[in-house]
Amino acid sequence: MLGIINRKICSGGSSVLTSGQSLQWARSSASALRSYSSAAKEMTVRDALNSALDEEMSADPKVFLMGEEVGEYQGAYKISKGLLDKYGPERVLDTPITEAGFTGIGVGAAYHGLRPVIEFMTFNFSMQAIDHIINSAAKSNYMSAGQISVPIVFRGPNGAAAGVGAQHSQCYASWFASCPGLKVLTPYSSEDARGLLKAAIRDPDPVVFLENELLYGESFPISAEALDSSFCLPIGKAKIEREGKDVTITAFSKMVGYALKAAEILAKEGISSEVINLRSIRPLDRSTINASVRKTNRLVTVEEGFPQHGVGAEICTSVVEDSFGYLDAPVERVAGADVPMPYAANLERMAVPQVEDIVRAAKRACYRSVPLAAAA
Amino acid sequence: MAVWLVRSRTFVHILSKKMRFLGVVPSRSSWDSSFMQYSSSSSAILPLVDNKYGSRPYAFFDNSPTRFLVPRFKSTEPERDLDSQYIKEDEDHDQALDFPGGKVAFTSEMSFISESGDKRVPCYRVLDDNGEPILSSNFVQVSKEVAVKMYSDMVTLQMMDTIFYEAQRQGRISFYLTTSGEEAINIASAAALSADDLVLPQYREPGVLLWRGFTLQDFANQCFGNKADSGKARQMPIHYVSKNHNYFAVSSPMATQLPQAVGVAYSLKMDGKNACVATYSGDGGSSEGDFHAALNFSAVLEAPVVFIVRNNGWAISTPTEEQFRSDGLVVRGRAYGIRSIRVDGNDAFAVYNAIHAAREMAIREQRPILVEALTYRVGHHSTSDDSTKYRPLNEIEYWKLARNPVNRFRKWVEKKGWWSDRDDSELRDSIRKQILQAIQIAEKTEKPPLADMFSDVYDKQPSNLQEQENLLRETIKRHPQDYPSDVPV
């Protein structure tokens, strides 16, 4: 059923390929972003982040990296490998174990014009510094009427890893994204990692950059354009990873890979899904999401984090506000289980969305399965 | 016999491990030669063995165990080299040990460091209660100009506090907090700093802004939240900010300014500027985790920051005895490897001298300095507090009158012949008029326009905020009666 209501679509377009035409072929490939072009170069997310840090530090002497184990240890996840040797201890600082301490120091340095990149070993530990992030970094520009800006980047792995239990597995996307003054980015591929980290470092506002530990080692094809040192992705624009016409699936970070796999499975059953890689949680690319829903009329949101007050809830509201008449089915929300992450491998698997969950949700949205409530 | 041998071997192995740990035995390699040496010399080892292990182990300190030990404790070249490097004997036969962190002597006497010194750390004082200089050699003389400005600003601060406090009581502003009793800390520290030094205040230091040129009208505008405020009335009263005066924003969560000050200082260090960072906090704020992180980190980073702690005896209703059990904050400096001093915070000259010196050291030596200024919070914590509920009125009156820092400094300036009663009454009249006028003007000045609500959230206004603003304006057009008439659009 086509949407009849003619509402003004915000500018910005829907399926604009933000990084140039050279990646057209990647979108239509069979498996998640794996290309078979002979000219394709592959790069792991880890290397992508490392190269982005390297290039930005080289371009601007005010950029410096600070965190636990970032220097001598080459980074807890080796993201900052080689940077200490190249830039010296003044620009790559190993800190004592005090998140509150080094986050506060980073904020202060940013107040005075440096551009710190603060690494949290995982964002779970950022809670020990959250006052500095929210009350100082996010709000200072506003509270000082523009006199004190905070060009800082907070980065590190976010969300579930493998077998690390409750205090190492929470997703903080919705926590940080609810706070005005912050920008929140969630890269998926290597191109995302490079382009968004460079954009984050160059941005005059405080940016929370949520990586994913399990993606660090994953390899993605990367274009020559993305490898250029001036490459940058716009903040606030989502990317359509796979075009489709039956159902829209939004996802970010690791879940993008799962959504793409689910799309493959659904395609075999005759459902064509459009997979949107959000890339930016705040600002959320509402226009891309809404344009897609107006095309497909069905929406499935996917995230790893807890369901209540999550990113999916925000997306659902956005669609209800802007495109209610276009929806042919209730919005399906796929999220992590509403429990602290259990450690046991079998329980952990059940606490995080799997590809099958996304497939079933998409089918429900397409009225291709019997709703649980009706199965009486 | 075999069993005995095995047992003895184990015992000696354990014992030798213990003794190596205590530094008695240099290493396994020199066991052979050294214990012969020990048994013959009157080294420190003997009492240890007597006290700790009784006489029985001593039985092992003869030749026989070595035969068992030789196969196990074969030394290596590097070990021998290292040992001779690390283990030295001085004339007291004490040996220094090497541990991560450096060399440390050892003692055979078990003694705990006392939780407090015999005496409290004395505070540095220049003027007595009558404004007379106590004989003191390192007294930086100030010019008449500076001294008069110091006194005038202290009076201005005092009067500004009184009148603004009253304004809050009259319902004209929503909140205020005074610096009563701490005028000397405020003004004298500001006078000792240079205009290029960056200040990260807590909230009881508007005197620093006053010294640097923030006008009474500026203070009033901020407190009244009108459109003339350089902070666009975004913050509640007394949360001043002024980049032009190198004064960072007052921030409500306690002690967050401390690690941030270290960050600013780090930035200064990278710039190589002849300036330092001065950051203020109180006895209460020193309990925050940020205090620990900041001091610790500043020493590691060798940051040029002066930590000025105003120990005024009270954190709202919590007296210092309930805040910490250390001898104030000055003793904590050493715990972090930071040079520190305690000063009489009600003595303007002591504060001036100490901050002046601290600043020099911080910049020249690129290190943090801790200055604890002892004082008393004469006023209530803020307009939301009534301190007579938790402390006696006569105590407050005593500090207000007998230990008043402003009066004390006045006596000195007058004795110098730089000030008179007439000057004083003229000044006070003039200041009072200026403050009242500033308040009247501030009260009448318009509140900030609607556009100011949506700007500065980010560097550039994002489209969603633009939409929200447009929507709000449309709503106001459609329902003008719901929008307050005195707020500009």
UniProtKB/TrEMBL annotation, chain A:
Catalysed reaction, written as an equation: N(6)-[(R)-lipoyl]-L-lysyl-[protein] + pyruvate + H(+) = N(6)-[(R)-S(8)-acetyldihydrolipoyl]-L-lysyl-[protein] + CO2
The protein's enzyme class: oxidoreductase
GO BP, sorted A to Z: pyruvate decarboxylation to acetyl-CoA
Highest classification ranks of the organism: Eukaryota, Viridiplantae, Streptophyta, Embryophyta, Tracheophyta
Pfam families named in the record: Transket_pyr, Transketolase_C
Ranges of residues in domain Transketolase-like pyrimidine-binding: 43-218
UniProt subunit comment: Tetramer of 2 alpha and 2 beta subunits.
Enzyme Commission number: 1.2.4.1
Entries under InterPro entries matching the protein: PDHB_mito-type, THDP-binding, Transketo_C/PFOR_II, Transketolase-like_Pyr-bd, Transketolase_C
SMART domains the record matches: Transket_pyr
UniProt keyword Membrane present: no
Species: Carya illinoinensis (Pecan)
Any GO MF annotation of the entry: metal ion binding
Function: The pyruvate dehydrogenase complex catalyzes the overall conversion of pyruvate to acetyl-CoA and CO(2). It contains multiple copies of three enzymatic components: pyruvate dehydrogenase (E1), dihydrolipoamide acetyltransferase (E2) and lipoamide dehydrogenase (E3).
Sections of the chain in a coiled coil: none
Keyword Oxidoreductase set for record: yes
Main subcellular localisation: mitochondrion
The organism's place on the tree of life at top rank: Eukaryota
Cofactor(s) of this protein: thiamine diphosphate
Annotated Gene3D superfamilies: 3.40.50.920, 3.40.50.970
UniProt cross-references to SUPFAM superfamilies, sorted A to Z: Thiamin diphosphate-binding fold (THDP-binding), TK C-terminal domain-like
Name of the protein: Pyruvate dehydrogenase E1 component subunit beta
Key words, A-Z: Metal-binding, Mitochondrion, Oxidoreductase, Potassium, Pyruvate, Thiamine pyrophosphate, Transit peptide
TrEMBL record, chain B:
Domain Dehydrogenase E1 component: 154-449
Catalytic activity as recorded in UniProt: N(6)-[(R)-lipoyl]-L-lysyl-[protein] + 3-methyl-2-oxobutanoate + H(+) = N(6)-[(R)-S(8)-2-methylpropanoyldihydrolipoyl]-L-lysyl-[protein] + CO2
Annotated compartments: Mitochondrion matrix
Keywords, sorted A to Z: Metal-binding, Mitochondrion, Oxidoreductase, Potassium, Transit peptide
Superkingdom in the source lineage: Eukaryota
One cellular component term from this protein's GO annotations in UniProt: mitochondrial matrix
Cofactor requirement: thiamine diphosphate
Broad class of where this protein is predominantly found: mitochondrion
Enzyme Commission code(s) on record: 1.2.4.4
GO process annotations (BP): branched-chain amino acid catabolic process
InterPro entries, per the entry: Alpha-ketoacid_DH_E1_comp, DH_E1
Keyword Oxidoreductase in record: yes
Gene Ontology molecular function terms on file: branched-chain 2-oxo acid dehydrogenase activity; metal ion binding
PANTHER family tied to this protein: 2-OXOISOVALERATE DEHYDROGENASE SUBUNIT ALPHA, MITOCHONDRIAL (PTHR43380:SF1)
Subunit structure: Heterotetramer of alpha and beta chains.
Family, per entry: Belongs to the BCKDHA family.
Record-given protein name: 3-methyl-2-oxobutanoate dehydrogenase (2-methylpropanoyl-transferring)
Species for this entry: Carya illinoinensis (Pecan)
